[in-house]
Amino acid sequence: MAGLSVTLFVGLLLIASSRADNRVVGGENAKEGQFPYQISLRHNNRHICGGSIISPNYVLTAAHCVVMLNEDGTYEVPPPKPFSVQAGSINRLEGGVVRQVEKLIVHEEYNSPFNDVALLKLQSPLTFTDKIKPIALAKAEVPEGTKVIISGWGLLKTEADEPPITLQWNTLKSISRKQCFVSIFISSEALICLAHSAGHGACMGDSGGPAAYNNELVGVAGFVIGGCGTSKPDGYAKVSYHLDWIKNNSDFTEGTPGVRVVGGETATEGQFPYQISLRRNGLHSCGGSIITKNFVLTAAHCVGYSDDDGNYTLHDPKTLTIRAGSTDRFMGGVLVRVVEIIAHENYDDLFNDVALLRLEDPLIFSKLIQPIPLASIEVPPGEDIVISGWGRLEHGGDIPRHLQWNTLSVLSRSDCKDRLPYVTDALICLGHDVDNGACNGDSGGPATYNGEVVGIAGFVTGGCGSSYPDGYAKVYYHVDWIKKHSNL
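Structure (tokenized):
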């Protein structure tokens, strides 16, 4: 490589000498919740690398972060026991939650610096909050000259003794394969090259960490040339190139995390005529309930996203459609475009998670398409509630083709408070047996009682089908808001 030195951001080779690896050079301190997908990969409780949350059970990182190099240049995958991840904190030393790693999955064609990707399967699932969230994976190439955001706890410079305590971030620029080859004599479809001025870039301890563009993960930190903060571009494993491998070796699926009915039954045609499939760019993402011929009730988190600064932005309504009048996720019924999204002005992650969709054309009611009345009373504790949706059948499992349903039970506020840390008058807690309940893909969907919609699917705790109750936005609490913003 023409005398240039390639430095891996971090690896077990460096762990032996107790050196951390790459941190962002020339960057800025991150704010709480700015990078909710970022984790600290730890070996014997010491930070060694970064990584990105892609599902409740899986983290994506670099292969060189977890392999052990042999003297003959080959590598082996060590036992996972010493590895853990810290999520939900920008402080390298404290905060957030820690999960042990159950399994290390290294790309079978890893050969530094190519195919430098690995997956970490966690012993127990992460519970998503405003500080712990997955990041979508890029399906397309990053345009040349695009600004890409990197983050990590890597060293501030090559000679530094200790990595920073607070997570750092910086903005680099993608360059073409040709420009990359001219600069560092390395070129591969599996790599993305990120350019920067001297005194900036990744460093030891950043390895495995994210490069993000347009709220998608586009790269996995791999190597620097000639030391940290040189004028040479940094090398990242290209996520779009490795997308199939990631999907085949984890439970990652495309689409908005939602909730599907775990342990339920397949619905019959016309059983839930108020249920719709909310679709973004043609793919099912959430559920919803028809409340008038022009309006659908769903969850706020289904129709927008929070940026790195925690600012909530609605999706473009042009990207949304609904399918009504069918229990088949792929076909049947009618497709109608959304022309307006109205999210609760006080929406804050788990709370006031309510939104309305105004349709381009009014629905024509039939035996398969009907509105459902809004809750007229508080549901007494212990009453049975019916939920429905196209969410996953089990945690990390498949999304069903046909609508599912199940019966849960209303918990009192005191019972809910004993089991969940977030309880308000605006929430309804639904208890269930293990391996039952809502899951990803059910979000925004209905919970019904006595022929009325009483809840909007919001969140699960401890993974789908856990022993914890599921959280639904209480329709009775929000009924005045819903009526005010719809034509009811």
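DSSP finds five helices and 32 strands in the chain. The domain at 35-122 is CATH 2.40.10.10 (Thrombin, subunit H).
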